[in-house]
Amino acid sequence: MGRVALILADIKVLGRGSAICVWFQGCGRRCHNCETPEFQPLLPSVDLSSALRKFEDSIAVSAPDSLVISGGEPLSTQNKNATLEFIKTYRKSVIRSGLRPLVFLYTGYTLEELKIMADETTDELLKVIDILIDGEYIDEKRTNSGGAGSSNQRIIAINPAYAKIAREYATRERRQQFAWSEQAKKFILVGLKGGKFND
What we know:
By secondary structure, the chain is α/β, with parallel strands linked by helices.
């Protein structure tokens, strides 16, 4: 159970390479000038079996280089079990295809806050997330480059094998793209604010 707001494949402006991205619905932080205010409202949890099947089918078709999970808040009490299921599904599908999984996750929690939660799901999540972008968005500290929205947010290689990729993600040129959402039946603008548009 949980609430997925949007799933998009072939995203070039978040994560690494061609990413599949999942945004979860619901966040109580209400950060000023949030990147995705449409995903803030808290809505009832729903069964995600169908969404997981579509997600797995999309992985098979798009062969993504990475998975990016954001929101909303993917690690809220409502969403974190579903977040774990999506990551497990991605990792199994990618490994089965002979590829190396790479998971990016954006959260308003800091790594320290996640560690003191000390619940089984959060502990397991910290074992399967490779790169964590942590901390709430603060508009007064907004940045114009890199993979974090504001300067207080950190890009942390939870998996030390991806330390170089995390450093590159922190300084990369910021870009945006339009992506077609079959679910919403419209083009969606993806990427952090202030980015140049992909050709």
